[in-house]
Amino acid sequence: MEKNLTVVIRSIGERTEGLCRKLISRQISEKNIITINKTPFSAALADSYRAGIQRGLKWTLCVDADLLLRPDAIMTLLKTGNESEDNVFLIQGLILDKFFGGPRPAGNPLYRTALLHKALELIPQEETSLRPERDTLRRMEEKGYLKKQIPVTLGLHDFEQYYKDIYRKCFIQAHKHDYRLDFFVSYWRRLRDKDFDFQVALTGLSAGILAERQEARIDARKFPASLENITSQEIKEKSPISKDFLINVEKVISEWREPEEYKKYFSATSYKTKKYSKKERLSELKKQLGILQLIIWLLGWLLYKTGLKIKNSVDRYKKSGAEE
What we know:
By secondary structure, the protein is of the alpha/beta class. It has two domains: 5-157, Alpha-Beta Complex (Spore Coat Polysaccharide Biosynthesis Protein SpsA, Chain A), CATH 3.90.550.10; 163-237, no CATH class. Helix content is 46%, strand content 15%. The chain has twelve helices and eight strands. Strands 1, 2, 3, 4, 5, 6, 7 and 8 form an eight-stranded mixed β-sheet that branches. The longest helix has 33 residues, at 291-323. The radius of gyration is 21 Å and the shape is globular.
């Protein structure tokens, strides 16, 4: 395995960075592991590609530091990769996402290193995309290169994270996954009294809904380092994870039971979101929030949409004036 694989951990100081590396080092030699600390994500993506190219091994596995891999994850990906055609650019498994309530296709991309130089040229420019990696893959697919998705859950995503990172991610989710807002509200509200992570998630989501899309950037530098600067709630940050802390990833995955919300909103086979009409979405939100909170929510959303339309109109007017 050491002769064929470089593992790149992409980190911005996540609480699980050390644990992520520890779990990976149980599957492959430390000499094959590189950690990159870079923002924004488009820059981290480019650096991870360059690291793989520089090492020159057949495969480059990129793992974000908020992902905890199961013991056989790397071997599973490599087996699929080695059995794939030469035009397969990426192999990806599923992750068990804490805030989605079940598995979804994301994270753990295994890249064919020989094609990374092509992908490097296709990475979206900074702050032009909320999904630089997905958009890069889409552009590669347009050139005839393929992605292979395997239906195996390979790790845990967003478990044991700092509150500030949960807030930041859920702020962005309000725009990145705006078509899933009713699901997030339903699921997170139900669990917020049992797990404070979900209360922080709701706080971040609410702030994201009220913010303009331009404010929703995946650059961690644009968010305050402390929750004290972004919310009026008194939230004491979690302490760092002990170097001796361990989590049985395999056990968590095998014992996980998808909540009813997940079963309702996601297909068990395709993991795609069920499509709802606007009327159905409003009805679902009314059930979860109550009529008063729904009105407040809708007013916030309306203000956001109106502000965005005004800004776009002003930008178009300025552009047309400049051209004249």
